[in-house]
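Inputs:
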Amino acid sequence: MQRDDLRAVRDAMDPPWDDLRAQRVLRAARTGRASRRLVRRRMWAGGACLAAAAVVAAVFVVRMPARSTVAPAAVSSASVAPAGSVMELMDGSRLAIGPSADVQVELQAPGAVKLVQRAGEVHYDVTPNPARSFEVRAATVRVRVVGTAFGIHMDKDSVHVTVQRGRVAVDDATGTTELGAGEELKRSLKLESAALAPSEPEAASSIVAPRASAEAVASVEDLLRRADQARASGRLDEAAMLLQQILVLHPKDKRAGAVLFTLGKVERARGNPAVAAAHFRACSRGPLAEDALAEEASAWMAAGQTGNAADAARRYLQRFPDGPHVARMRRMVE
Amino acid sequence: MIVRALQAVPADDATLVERVRRGDESAFSALYERHARYLAGVLYRIMGHDAETDDILQETFVDAALQIGQLREPSQIRSWLVTIVVRRAHRALGARRRRKWFGLRVAEISPRCADPKLRQRIDELYEQLDRLSPDMRIPWVLHRIEDQGLADVAAACGVSLATAKRRIAAADERLNRRMHATG
């Protein structure tokens, strides 16, 4: 065939390609990637199990077999979680890992999950399971949970724990502190000596409770203004922190829904789509419900959680059958 | 409160690759959006039909996501993705040939083509390409239809330049002989 003929072949041989098809393939690629990673981790864990079992068997053979006190081998998958991603653990708990975060899974066993966070911001959505302990160590602070959603933000000077749902126990040099939903604790890593002297006027850690005195607390307007400035300047971490402060300090303010919506947008921009989806969901009952539901579905899709995305899309279609996002929501349900 | 849209500055391929390596999901999506359409076209013209495009393309991006740490030149990611597509297509073509040997036919989706004469030429071409081994078919398609240079074809197929030239020449000879024989 002549060159011109082949060029005509090339022009004619073009596959139909549209947004729907593109999104379908992308979703399948994300699912495939997660499946292959899980298979690799399980193979690694299986290998570790076999190795541990071999050690146990060797001990069994060497010692008297009557009553072995060797505990079942735990699965240790010391894997480093990639920053800026959502990671699902074997027990179904999820980590939304910020772009500059550093977190490592130290142990995953039926009865225990242990992680170490060394930097940045990670949000933990922990599946309830009273038979399994779940703890995160961040410098000298250890957060133990039963089933909850909480965040840890750390830098070289401090560790900041916020709880969105459920309860956590935070261990540090001063002892154990329990936090409930809407509460937070900040632990300075520089003031460790202060923690040993509780009579000192400045505490090494502070808990911000939902009801603080008006004089000590920044106003919603002030926090919103500063959050807007931070967003406009590209300081998204700061913007997120300021918006979260509004929710903690002024949970009953009538603008809470708008704050949650904005926080969702900020988290999307920070590359935390799963966290963003949770915020959009939290404001999907108020005046911003229509856009919040659509944003929730999009955020879940971006996080690779197609089931949650379809669920949010269905809720949108039920409540807003004539809404402006109907076409996009229908594609997510298909 | 005004909700402002944040403007994203388009990043180049090398920057997106680095971000994917750090686990940035949005960078992975951006790379996909940038290159998937092109790869779908290359794949379609290698395979000759659309039945397996989505599956192979999906697996290509899974491979890419898991192996992106091995990419030596992030700015050349498109060429690297073509290499992965070629590897996957090679496997699929081999499986297709084996299915044919056992009398199992794959449902094929013919290319859309308004011109009946061109459609007939395309059908004849791909009927003859189906008789070539994947080793000959793929470099020929990349060079003759995709218009890629010989060095790029060799890199995509993972062979030397001499081998790529030899296989393309052998495919040329067989296709010309068979298509002239069928008139």
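Confidence is low (pLDDT under 50) at residues 1-8, 104-109 of chain B. Flag for discussion at group meeting.
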